[in-house]
Design goal:
The protein is an alpha/beta fold. Bound molecules: S-adenosylmethionine. InterPro entries: MeTrfase_RsmB-F_NOP2_cat, MeTrfase_RsmB-F_NOP2_dom, NusB-like_sf, NusB_RsmB_TIM44, RCMT, SAM-dependent_MTases_sf.
Length: about 475
Amino acid sequence: MRPRSEKHQGRPDTKREEPFRPRKPAPQGQGKPDTRNLGPRAIALDAVGEVFSGKAPLDHAIASHPDHNRLEVRDRAFARAIAAAAVRRKGALEAALAVFLDKPLPQTADRGRHVLLCGAAELLVLDNAPHAVVDAWVTLMNADEKTARFAGLANAVLRRVSERGRGAFDGADPLADLPDWLAARWAKTYGEKTARAMARARAGVPPLDLTPRPGIDAGKLAGDLGGELLPTGSIRLEDAGDPTLLPGFAEGRWWVQDAAAALPARLLGPKPGERIADLCAAPGGKTLQIAASGAETFAIDRAKKRLPPVHENLERVALNAHVEAADATQWTPDAPLDAVLLDAPCSATGTLRRRPDVAWAKEEADIASLAEVQSRLLDAAFAMLKPGGRLVYCTCSLEPEEGEDQIAAFLERTGSARLDPVKPGELPELETAIDSQGAVRTRPDMWASLGGLDGFYIARIVKG
Ligand SMILES: C[S@@+](CC[C@H](N)C(=O)[O-])C[C@H]1O[C@@H](n2cnc3c(N)ncnc32)[C@H](O)[C@@H]1O
């Protein structure tokens, strides 16, 4: 299974990026622009502006748009598909546009540039009908006095992109889709070749991964769902549609969780009767794994507003946990714990294939401040353990400061801590993800033939 192109893709959550054909092409009227049927595109355009200016994450920008609630569900999905494609493939789309632009639009013309980007995204990523696409984006360019002067240019450029833009788009360097600071970082950390493979792997929208509830026949469930059972136990589906409509959702037979995100709790190895804390728990994917083992589970998260999904997930899957809103650096258990899972807040650069906007919501300086938070959380988590207790630390980041460097510094300052190396048999067909210390580093370009996986760092530590 390979990563799919955007036109066939879906997100891991309940929202999907789906192919879309406008019901009716926007009319080619003269004079006052006709903005009928432009609602989803206008929302996508505003959302792209919010993402690139760092004002809001993509889903929030779309859902909080004043016109969002007026759209049918199908049109909301269309708005998201356009905006996500424009954000995900920014560099490649700009490369295709540049071929037909004598010079770039001025720096002051952000909105005009975003019109071209969204139009090109529809043409080259979503493969929508060129005539309707060009008409709609030219009309939108014309509809705003700040961009109207570029309407003629948009018409000419988007037409040419639809006819001859494919080569430049397909040939573009995938690293150009990322903010410059992140592309440079990945190249420095992993080398140009691997960094490019990582960027390429996040260019397509990933499949949907599910974690089956323990005790369920995962092979049979995979067959029932038309999916594939992955070597580490997750089930992978392509073109799954809305997960809440899939068989077994309501009965709690599985939950949505990237195959890499399912590894930390598996490597923790929770056992019935153990007392285990999941310290940064919301929305609760790893809490469910721990609770399903029969361990007494404490799900702690600082963000109270992120806790309702934890409760809803536990209820749907019919599992129990003590759920509490608390800062994990302040929270203390009644008695020392058998194990702690710390899925620390991070830059989330490992999840770009699922959330392409994440790269634009962060700056390089954020990594150092997040690393400080992670360091405090690590110390607090370790203090909660009884002697012999286990700590699994993980982040969905590809940055060493939030992974390898973080754990090296922790082991250096904590005499009673030792790394418990992950054994090859614990990660079937993913043995290459185990580093020389016995920690785990997954990357989006791994498991290429199976459809890739998110980037995670995972270390298992024992208290001496
Ligand atoms: C990566 S997410 C956790 C995802 C979750 N473990 C899962 O698998 O569904 C990080 C979480 O850390 C929480 N968080 C950040 N700082 C925290 C702190 N000091 N104490 C507790 N939770 C914190 C955030 O609210 C966020 O929900």
